[in-house]
Design brief:
The structure holds two protein chains of two kinds. Chain A is an all-beta fold. Chain A has no helices and eleven strands. In chain B, strand 7 and strand 8 form a beta hairpin. The chains are: A mainly beta, B mainly beta. Chains A and B meet through strand 4, strand 5, strand 9 and strand 10 of A and strand 4, strand 5, strand 9 and strand 10 of B.
């Protein structure tokens, strides 16, 4: 059974800190790894990483895919209170359809 | 450019009833996937629709069914509701033609079964 595990499940830091969120996976037919930010309801797309694009960066956020270790990290530097959210890691697999298998999420809280 | 829209926002139903949730994909997208997100959990794949056909189903019973219309919008139907069906139901759209896994999510429908 396809499995995606995120750690830590919860993280509380102070504004300005740097955080690293982890995601590991065990799936068949891996195609991509995606990161989403979920503040209230709709998960918002952040990055997609594939074999041809294992590193992505956007402003203070960056992510790396390690296909050998079957894992990924999401880094956020100079955190702000607006970064408080649940961060979801999802792996795209092909099984008759292009479906996403999600981890349970990391709840990140940034205190001022 | 309109994003993914879903209706209704909230819904309260009684055990045994039936419910229909609706989704309109992002402009230019042709594929709709449905996910169930229980409290404190990540979303779980229910099924995906493309060209008005169900392409793949996750580990959900036949009480969950869906439909895709020619304009790519989609419905999720759940029959004989159970208390355990209470969750946030998310619709995601993508463009299969691009062979992309980039799925964009709607705001979800919060279903409460009492």
């Amino acid at each position: 059974e396809d499995k995606v595990v995120q750690s830590p499940l919860s993280l509380v830091v102070h504004e300005g800190d740097t955080v690293t969120l982890n995601c590991s996976y065990e799936v068949t037919n891996f195609r991509s790894l995606l990161w989403y930010k979920q503040e209230k309801k709709a998960p918002t797309f952040l990055f997609m990483l594939t074999s041809s694009g294992i590193e992505k960066k956007s402003g203070r956020l960056s992510s790396i895919l390690d296909k050998k270790e079957l894992s990924s990290i999401l880094n956020i530097t100079a955190t702000q209170t607006g970064d408080s959210a649940i961060y979801l890691c999802a792996v795209g697999v092909i099984q008759g359809a292009q479906k996403l298998v999600f981890g349970q999420g990391t709840r990140l809280t940034i205190n001022p | 450019d309109a994003g993914v829209t879903q209706s209704p926002t909230h819904l309260i139903k009684t055990r045994g009833q039936q419910v229909t949730l609706r989704c309109s994909p992002k402009s230019g997208h042709d594929t709709v996937s449905w996910y169930q997100q229980a409290l404190g959990q990540g979303p779980q794949f229910i099924f995906q629709y493309y060209e008005e056909e169900e392409r793949q189903r996750g580990n959900f019973p036949d009480r969950f069914s869906g439909h895709q219309f020619p304009n790519y919008s989609s419905e999720l139907n759940v029959n004989a509701l159970l208390l355990g069906d209470s969750a946030l139901y998310l619709c995601a759209s993508s463009w299969l033609g691009q062979n992309s896994y980039e799925q964009y999510f709607g705001p979800g429908t919060r279903l409460t079964v009492t």
